[in-house]
Write a structure and sequence with these properties.
Layout lengths: L1 E5 L6 E6 L6 H6 L6 E7 L2 H15 L3 E7 L8 H13 L7 E6 L1 H13 L6 E5 L2 H7 L4 E6 L2 E8 L4 E5 L8 H18 L1 H15 L3 H21 L14 H10 L7 H19 L4 H13 L10 H13 L9 E7 L2 E7 L2 H8 L6
Parallel strand pairs: 2-9, 3-4, 3-5, 5-6, 6-9
Antiparallel strand pairs: 1-2, 7-8, 10-11
Helix pairs in contact: 3-4, 5-6, 5-8, 6-7, 6-8, 6-10, 7-8, 9-10, 9-12, 10-11, 10-13
The protein binds nicotinamide-adenine-dinucleotide and zinc ion.
Amino acid sequence: MRTVEVPLGQRSYQIKIAPKLLPRLGVECRRLKLGARCAIITDSTVGPLYAKNALASLKEAGFDPALITVPAGETAKSIRNVERCYDQLAKHRLERKSFIVALGGGVVGDLAGFVAATYLRGIPFVQVPTTLLAQVDSSVGGKTGVNLKAGKNLVGAFHQPRLVLCDLDILRSLPQREFRAGLAEVIKYGIIYDTSLFARLERALPRLLRKQPAVLGSVIARCCEIKADVVGQDETESGLRAILNFGHTIGHALEAISSYGKYLHGEAISIGQVAAAKLSNALTGLPEADTKRITQLFKRAGLPTAVTLTAVQRKALFGAMRLDKKVSAGEVKFVLAQRIGKVVWGQRVPESEIVGVLTADGRR
Ligand SMILES: NC(=O)c1ccc[n+]([C@@H]2O[C@H](COP(=O)([O-])OP(=O)(O)OC[C@H]3O[C@@H](n4cnc5c(N)ncnc54)[C@H](O)[C@@H]3O)[C@@H](O)[C@H]2O)c1
Ligand SMILES: [Zn+2]
C-alpha cells in the first residue's frame, strides 16, 4: 500500500492507494475514532456496484451506516440534493461525531463533501474516490461544492476529508473514456511540476491505459503527492495553487460554450493544455520540442488536442473566458509553461494569440 500525507497542521490526513481497499473501509474508519452512526453518499451507477461491499465493511467494524443514493451525473451537484441529503442524515440521527463516506467520482465527492462541511456546521468525512479524476484531483485538497443555474461550483466550502482511500480495483469498471479523461489531469501534473513524471508517463502510457495496478498505483500516488504539496503551500488559493489550473482557462470556457455536453472535463482541458503549451511556446519560451512532446502525449492518450470553432463560437468562448471565476479585474490570466515541469502563473495573453493556437493547423 502507498500512503501520501497531506500536511495541513491539525487537519492533516492520509491518502491510501492500493488494490482491495474498499473491504478495509470499516477498519480504516475505526482508526479515526469517529461516532458509530454514519452515511454513505453514492450515485446510481457506483452504488449498485460497490455500496454493498462498503456497507458490509462498515457494519463489520461496528458502524451503523445509512445509504444515500443520488442520480449519476453532474446535475446531482445541486442545492436540492444537498437538502435531500440533510433530510436523510437527520432521519438517521447523525450527530457531531458521525461521519459521511463519499463513494463515487468527483460529483459525489463535491456534493458529499459540501454536505459534510455544512451539516451541524461540519462533520467529518472520508473520501472513497472511484474515478481516476477523483483519485488524482478532486478528492485531494478540500474543495467541496455544488452548482447553481448561473454556473458550476458557485456555492462551496473548504472542508478537508479525514482520510482518502483510492482502491485501484474500483477503476476497472470505469468506462475507458472516463479513464482517459482522468489521464488529462495526470499529464497536467507532469507539465506543471515534475519532468520525470512526464517522462515516466511517456514510457508507461500503454501499461497505464491497460490499468496495470503497479504503474497505476505509483502514478496516482505521485499525482496526489504533487497536489498535496501544492495545496499544503497554498490551501485557500491565494497564489501557487493557481498552477493546478494549467489548461483550464480555455478548458472551462470550452465546457461552458458546449453546455457541459460535448466534452468531458478531461477532454476540454486536454485541448486547453495543448493550446496553453502553444501559447507558452510563443510567450514564455517553452521549447518547440517540449510543445511537441506535450501534444503527442495527449494524442497517444486518446484525447482531443484541437477544436474547430465558428466565428460565433469563438466569440462565445472569449465571453465565457472572461466570466470564469479565475478572472480578476476583468483580465484573463493564464498559467504558462517555461519547460515541461515548470510553469508560471498570472500571465496576460492577447486574444489574437489564443485564436491561433486552438486549431490543429493553427500558428505555432
Ligand atoms: N473539488 C475539487 O477540487 C474538484 C477538482 C476537479 C473536479 N471536480 C469536480 O469533479 C466532478 C467530475 O468528477 P468525475 O470526472 O469523477 O465525474 P463523475 O463523478 O460524474 O463520474 C463520471 C461517471 O462515471 C461513473 N463512475 C464513477 N466511478 C465509476 C466506476 N468505478 N465504475 C463505473 N462507473 C463509475 C459515475 O457514475 C459518472 O456517471 C465535476 O463536478 C468537477 O467540478 C472537483
Ligand atoms: Zn481539472
